[in-house]
Amino acid sequence: MQATEEYTPTVDVGSSTLFSGHKMQAEPMSLAEQKRRLRISLRAARLGIGHENTSAFKALTDHFRENVSLEPGAVVAGYRAFRGEMDPALLIEALRQARHPIALPVVTQRGQPLIFRLHGADDPLAANAMGILEPLPSAPVVEPDVFLVPLLAFDRAYNRLGYGAGFYDRTLTDLRARKPLLAVGVAFAAQEVAAVPVGPYDAKLDKIVTELNVF
After folding, report:
1. pTM given for the model
2. How many helices (H) and strands (E) does the chain have?
3. CATH classification number, 31-209, choose in 3.40.50.10420, 3.30.710.10, 3.40.50.150, 1.20.950.20
């Protein structure tokens, strides 16, 4: 759909520039080093967008509801916003009202896919070792049909830069081998870059929703 505000320009992250616009070294870099440098720049940039940007959260919710069709009763995997991520809380509440069960991710161990446990609006949460709130072990485990995926950066080829642990890449790859699913990147428009550096194990998104656009 068309942007509802002035479009935010993309930023070149190819062989010559970083997100910040500074020149990179001329010599080729490894994929891991490209990602590492981009993550450093993007973490700092995202924190400047604002944690309490309620107008952006509402706009994202409206764009999602108007442009993303879900099967009745589809289980939606949400997430709890952390360190400046786009907060999907308003969207999750709207999906609950539309009778979609909501699940939240749980980290089992590094190198393994996430699992997802059902979470009701009033169910308790507990912080994991990284300080991220998760459902309690007593909550039922489910396999979601739709994923709201947090990220550091995205491009228009539906590539996503995550945080480096590979949790969502493993999870999406594992579940896609067993069932159809919809992976929706959820982000601020300012997190768009010209091209995300990707490797063979990086899982693509199916859609991307921001406060300005839907791709």
Report:
1. 0.83
2. 4, 11
3. 3.40.50.10420
